[in-house]
Amino acid sequence: MEHNSQITKERKKELISFQKILGIRFKRLELLNTALAHKSYVNESGLDIENNEKLEFLGDAFLGFIISNFLYNQRLYSKEGSLARIKSYVVSEPTLYRVGKKLNIQQYLLLGKGEEKSGGRERQALISDAVEAVIGAYFLDSGYKKAKKFVEKLFYEEILRVEKDQHEKDYKSILQELTQKRYRELPEYSVVDMEGPEHRKKFYVNVRIKKRVYGPGVGVSKKEAEQKAAYIALKNLKSSSSLSDTGIERIIKSQDSESAGTGKGSRNNGENA
Fold it and tell me: What are the residue ranges of helices labelled H in the chain?
């Protein structure tokens, strides 16, 4: 990780400015620079530097542990399944994206020209990955205690959103929990169609449960389409028989209320034969 020492004076000023937004200080500024270096930039620059993928991997693991530990110590939720679901909300891509946008992290990313032109600086997956990479970099730079404090501060508002049930629902996790309980098997997702240019693709995804197919869920990413397909499956399963988890019932009811209020709907909310 020491190869990212080729930092210009102008870049150093940018990184120092970003540190102020983060509310932390790196001993090794090159680690923060690496955390913000997308592979497209590294591939095009020809410089002897690393991209942020390894730091993202580390940050993802560290974030999951710290949030799990925080939720456990709060003693707000007694059921293991509920704890796992709440953790999945807090560390999900949409949550990481919101956190990244609040930090204005996209302004400090190092991107290749192609990625820049295709709108990568505002892409949800790219921003969420960068947040994890920064967390991983700070853990390496300053150790467990400081990194733990940083993560808890960064995600405190998102944890409050979960407690107030104002978070975005992770339907894939809910569906997986339900099908494991009811059928002892996992949902199977498949992309059935794609349309649009490379930088603005639309994905259509079905989910199969016990030989029945639900969908399609439609989204601008495969992950989003899978979430939509999972929600369609949950609605159909709820209508066919009572769900054993009252928490899941409440989530579906709250989403139905939101959809009714906004008039939103999917292209096809039914079940495919």
Answer: 9-22, 29-35, 39-45, 53-74, 80-90, 93-102, 113-117, 124-142, 144-163, 171-183, 222-240, 246-262
Q: How far apart, in Å, do the first and last CA atoms of the chain sit?
A: 52
pLDDT in tens, 5-52: 578 999 999 999 999 999 999 999 999 999 999 999 999 887 778 999
Six-digit token string for 18: 């970003």
**193 in catalytic set:** no
Distance of CA 255 to the CA centre of its chain: 20
Distance (Å, whole) CA 6 – CA 264? 49
Under 8 Å CB-to-CB from 144, ≥6 apart: which residues?
none
In the structure encoding, which two tokens stand for residue 158, read together? Answer: 């998102």
Residue 170: active-site member? no
Among 30, 50, 60, 115, the active-site one is 60
Token pair for 36: 């913000």
Q: What is the largest CA-CA distance in the chain?
A: 64
Which of 30, 50, 129, 132 is flagged as catalytic?
Answer: 132
Q: Which residues of 192-214 are buried (b: 16+ CB within 10 A; e: fewer)?
A: beeeeeeeeeebbbbbbbeeebb
